[in-house]
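pls ignore typos typing on phone
NAP + seq
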Amino acid sequence: MKAVRMHAHGGPGVLVLEDVPDPVPAAGEVLVAIKAASVNAADWKVRSGISPVPLVFPHILGRDFSGVVETAGPDTDMERGTEVYAVCPPGMEGGYAEKISIGAQYVARKPENLSHVEAAAIGLAALTALVTIEDTLKLKRGEKILIQGGAGGVAGMAIQLAHHLGAEVVTTARAENHAYVRGLGADQVIDYTEEDPAVLVGDCDAAFDTVGGACIAQSFAVLTPGGRAAFIAGGADAPIPPREDVTALRPAVNRSRALMDRVTAYVEAGILRLPEITTMPLSAAVHAHELSEAKHVRGKLVFDIGD
Ligand SMILES: NC(=O)c1ccc[n+]([C@@H]2O[C@H](COP(=O)([O-])OP(=O)(O)OC[C@H]3O[C@@H](n4cnc5c(N)ncnc54)[C@H](OP(=O)(O)O)[C@@H]3O)[C@@H](O)[C@H]2O)c1
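k done
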């Protein structure tokens, strides 16, 4: 099969499209013919080495993919031909390839109303948004939330979920992305290049920071007493709050079929809609990483791996 592999940490140029042996499913695994795989910010962090994920080289990157079960190994409950999507656990080889062997417990039925490219685009972004908004922040109807980085993959899903739950949604984005994030359900959009959310907003019950860095202080400052803020862009721990009357949370984004089925239910009900999707072939992996690392992709980049 073809796969994009890295033989060492480094810049985007370490990604090489190569011919590699097909993976062989072990007990409990399925072999999936991958039709599409998405590019996540996590990928360039792992590639560069700033993410402390131990790797065995050569390594195939990628977290989420969509495809068709080609072989169901022993001790699996899936059938050959089933259309599936999944998010791989950290450290495991991923979706930048034509095939993958993965534990059946991570693999879920693909949403019926999505193509493979669309399902791959939804995967990790929707899973992270779901776990953060519903399970970590426990956002409620009538609450107000600041979502930092509205035009990105995770934030785009989080805006939709928060809006669906009946929250008032404030988000940050460059001016050219304002119509896009309003279309996802944002009630108020702040151009972070011109204005400071910490000055404009001070009455949020919750904040979801998908950007980190200078945004962290803003995400704490916008909270009312008792407010809670969730952080996913930094390390494994949430930052320490600069004030005692708010809570900082680090979502535990586990991978499982049950979690993907919750995403699927929202997608098939029309509650979670598609992000803007830019497709590329696997051979454009270096360019995809250059774009992702520049941090201004709107929506999602997806490798269309096809037949
Ligand atoms: N399990 C986990 O913990 C987990 C899971 C998924 C992602 N993550 C992390 O979460 C972060 C977001 O991931 P992602 O895939 O959603 O990223 P992404 O799609 O690459 O985010 C890109 C977006 O960030 C926006 N942005 C950049 N700088 C900004 C700023 N200063 N203020 C506001 N928006 C800004 C850009 O919009 P503009 O062009 O408008 O600036 C762009 O649309 C990453 O650090 C990723 O590693 C963690």
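The helical segments are 41-48, 116-136, 153-164, 178-184, 197-200, 215-221, 257-268, 285-293. The mean pLDDT is 97. more later
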